[in-house]
Amino acid sequence: MEEFYQDFQIISREEAKEIIDILSFGNDNSFYTSKDIKLFAYNIPEDYLLIPLKRNEKLYGFVGLSMPSSYDLQDTILSILYHLTISLENSFIYEHTEKLSCIDPLTGVYNKRKIDEILENEINRALRYNRPLSLLFIDIDHFKNINDMYGHIIGDNFLKELALFLLRNTRNIDSIGRFGGEEFVCILPETDLDSAYKVGEKLRIRWNIERHIVPINVQEKTGTLSIGIANSPIHSQNPRELLILADNALYKAKRERNKTSIFEKF
């Protein structure tokens, strides 16, 4: 049995895509021998078995097993793999549930709960290494007019469009979240106040250039962005307070609309 477990290995779905495509098509075998596999893969030992990890018609991957022909362990192997497949399925379900708990279902970016968690972690890291961190609070100007005049489906599409725009125009180390309604938050690690202002202006201007606006009447266009900025450690080292200060800066920006404002202490 020791030799049996030494030769036990898992083949992932990504690593065995061709195997999955070929062997899972119209075939309900419990396992495949080296003779089956050698149709498209070479250098396979004669005593090799390939066993699909399948449950409820969903294929999670394969287990490859090199086993001397003297072993008569087919039932044992299938029993082990049955329990392994259940464990993998439960793992995928848990991972999917965890992802759903931190993602905004409409836009696909982080939700408020996750943003609060990330901000606390990032501020702690920034303080530990004496690094700056900036926070952008972003709001769509006159968003209520979009919903009132064009309907909530158009409004929802507008929110999705903004989320994709923010993801496309920020760094991998930045975190984007929907804080509520039409308000979004960008957490910018390693970013001082001047750089954060440049980021905010880049986002605001590029959004306008790409014409993410909906005409309401001759005097007014809606859909522009107002952005408020706060920085740690300059303004606050407390996550909740930093959010409040960035929101205060946003409130100032929204008085003029289509503007980027930095929080100012009075």
UniProtKB/TrEMBL annotation:
Q: May I have one GO cellular component term? A: plasma membrane
GGDEF domain: residues covered: 131-265
Q: Which SUPFAM superfamilies match?
A: Nucleotide cyclase
Which reactions appear under catalytic activity for this entry?
2 GTP = 3',3'-c-di-GMP + 2 diphosphate
Q: Which GO terms describe its molecular function?
A: diguanylate cyclase activity
Source domain of life = Bacteria
What InterPro entries does the annotation carry? Diguanylate_Cyclase, GGDEF_dom, Nucleotide_cyclase, Rev_trsase/Diguanyl_cyclase
Biological processes annotated in GO? cell adhesion involved in single-species biofilm formation; negative regulation of bacterial-type flagellum-dependent cell motility
> Cross-referenced Pfam families, in alphabetical order?
GGDEF
Q: Which Gene3D superfamilies match?
A: 3.30.70.270
Q: What is its EC number?
A: 2.7.7.65
Residues that span the membrane, as ranges: none
Question: Entry's PANTHER family?
Answer: DIGUANYLATE CYCLASE DGCM-RELATED, REGULATORY COMPONENTS OF SENSORY TRANSDUCTION SYSTEM
NCBIfam families, alphabetized: GGDEF
Q: What is this protein called?
A: diguanylate cyclase
Q: Which organism is it from?
A: Dictyoglomus turgidum (strain DSM 6724 / Z-1310)
